[in-house]
Amino acid sequence: MMQNPIGQAMSNSQIADAVHTAPTGMAPTIAGRPRSRWGRLVPNLVLILSAIYFIAPLLTLARFSLQNVPTILLGWDTLFDKWSLSGVTAVFKEEQFWVSLRLSLKLAGGTVLLTLLMLLPTAIWVHLKVPRARAFVEFLTVLPYMIPAIALVAGIVIIKPHARWFLNSELSLIPFYVVLALPFTYRSFDAGLKAIDLRTLVDASRSLGSGWLSTVTRVLIPNLRTSIISASFLTAAVVMGEYTLADTLLIESLPPFQQKFTGREPQAGYGLNLLALLSTTLLFVLLSVLTKKRDRKRKSFASVSARLAMSREQGL
Amino acid sequence: MTTLDYISVRKTFGATVALHSFDLDVKEGELITLLGPSGCGKTTALRITAGFEFADSGAVLVGGSDITRTPAHKRNMGMVFQSYSLFPNLSVANNVDFGLRTRGIDKHTRHQRVAEMLELVELTAFADRYPHQLSGGQAQRVALARALAVQPQVLLLDEPLSALDAKVRTNLRDEIRRIQTEVGITTLFVTHDQEEALAISDRICVMSQGRVEQLGTPTEVYRHPTTAFVARFVGSMNEFAAEVSGPGEVSIGGRRFGVPKVGDRQQGTAVSLLVRPEDLEITTDGFPGTVASVTFQGSTTLVGVRLDVLDQLVSVDVGQGAADGLQIGDRTHVTVNGSNAVCEGA
């Protein structure tokens, strides 16, 4: 039993009142025990150190790319000298940059499309028809994590003589990128499908006269919007950053160009890296803003339905 | 309005037989409840009707037409599910409109029909809301409106009330019955809740292990159960070890009672006698015992009495006011009215 300052026992409501009316200078308490100064300091310190660990390299990258000062002279006394966007914009004058960018965007678009066309129906099918195989499919989709991209290249080299008609095309990278992006995309679809009461929604749609195509386009895709957008962005990010496959197969998409360009023009090369980093961050912020608000409300309804369905399946 | 017939429908899932030669005829405009415990096959029968599962053998006829192999989206069924099956991305009005749009009905007719349906379930003011803005009861009413909007031949209700709390459940149950009667649609209702089944049905089909145990009106099923399973499953029962003491007569602890359902059992046969709490009476003679519990249930009171001779606790439904003055530990007597009792054994 908690006691007040003069040793009298306090009721729950009195305790609640006491917590509310505690002087502002007093540290918050956990189970009535005051938190020490160290208790507050350590988490904040960890947070600050982590932030420095991530931000400091980015700041130095920004200085290196945006300041026209020789690296050896970069220090506190040159902090405000010769800042310029030329390090970032230099790459725009390179003709090959545009060619590589276009190719990478094409590859990203193609990979996203193929992923959606192949993986979304597969994920829906697995969830609906063979739910017991979910763990196995999940295992299959993480294989690209375990098998290095270079092993995939070795496989491609072996089959290349038999499929030159296909592998000679730059776009032949698309199916391999679909495989590389599997761990991210499948998980995204899987999470989306688990959050809705898939079977009931499908049954409801079909009982109202919808065929499979109509059910997928009118019911499932709108309710998996966030998963689809996330999977698409993640796939695009994988493609835009993939170096091993493209370089080994001598296809000059953006990452191999970036590598060569950085070797030739270090400052502009790192400027390009900075630009890529900022663009990706911006895209993900945009994704988060676009999907979060509407999705939270829908998910609360969908998850109630999903929970009900789950308890029904468990016979509760 | 149409009829719904099942002819020797059989369905298995691997080695498990979900339905053994299931036969049932639902008349035009009738509401039949499939009642039974989990795994008795009631939901399988409903899903076969909806076209989500196909029967291994037998036939399902709607209005005399065989729909056994017809895919779900080509059957004209309306279905309300246990979990809230509204499409989260669509407003209430668009949910109700979904089936109409699928059928390619013109916009004007669709709008009119949506308005009628929302009026029927008294949710006109909620047309622009989204499912997450509705309570459970409202969501199920919208689901009902959506199912009825397409003017289905048969309405299928798969435990639509089980996710709701007690008060909403009773209100919605009455509302479903009102709407079903008003629309006059042939309806199949699935539930494991006997109270719900007794309150809403024209007839009840009690199922166990994929078989029909009894088909009858709520009164028939409750008052005249044909099997011990039905007697135990629908309502509560007191069970006595008894012995057949003559034609239409059994003996419990040396006392004889008239029990018409003894049938042609031989004298001396040991049986279990199942008697409802309302067929037991607190009297001044009968089996002596001690009051073990008094449970007020609103319109009635259940009194638990431990009988001295049989050393058995029985439950007696004494009706409103009759239990006044009875307290735990009081001495009393209980008599058995065997006219509706069910005999089980040899």
Number of domains of chain B: 2
Which architecture of the largest domain in chain A would the CATH scheme give at its second level? Orthogonal Bundle
Strand content of chain A: under 5%
CATH superfamily of the largest domain in chain B: P-loop containing nucleotide triphosphate hydrolases
Question: How would you briefly describe this protein structure?
Answer:
The complex is a heterodimer of chains A (316) and B (346). With 316 residues, chain A is mainly α.
Explain the overall architecture:
The complex is a heterodimer of chains A (316) and B (346). Chain A has 316 residues and is mostly helical. Chain A contains 14 helices and 2 strands. Helix content of chain A is 73%, strand content 1%. In chain A, strands 1-2 form a two-stranded antiparallel ribbon. In chain A, helix 4 (95-129) runs antiparallel to helix 13. Mean pLDDT of chain A is 81; it is low at 1-30 and 312-316. In chain B, helix 2 (92-102) crosses helix 3 (107-120), helix 2 (92-102) packs parallel to helix 4 (136-149) and helix 4 (136-149) runs parallel beside helix 5. Chain B is α+β, with helices and mostly antiparallel strands. At the A-B interface, helix 9, helix 10 and helix 14 of A face strand 6, helix 2 and helix 4 of B.
Write the layout of secondary structure elements.
The complex is a heterodimer of chains A (316) and B (346).
Chain A: H1 12-20, E1 29-30, E2 33-34, H2 37-66, H3 86-89, H4 95-129, H5 134-146, H6 149-159, H7 164-167, H8 173-195, H9 198-207, H10 212-223, H11 225-241, H12 244-248, H13 254-264, H14 266-313
Antiparallel strand pairs in A: 1-2
Chain B: E1 4-13, E2 16-26, E3 31-35, H1 42-50, E4 57-62, E5 65-66, E6 77-80, H2 92-102, H3 107-120, H4 136-149, E7 154-158, H5 166-183, E8 186-191, H6 194-200, E9 203-208, E10 211-216, H7 218-223, H8 228-233, E11 238-246, E12 249-252, E13 255-258, E14 270-275, E15 280-283, E16 287-296, E17 301-307, E18 312-317, E19 331-336, E20 342-344
Parallel strand pairs in B: 3-8, 3-9, 6-7, 7-8
Antiparallel strand pairs in B: 1-2, 1-4, 4-5, 9-10, 11-12, 11-14, 12-13, 14-20, 15-19, 16-17, 16-19, 17-18
Helix pairs in contact in B: 2-3, 2-4, 3-4, 4-5
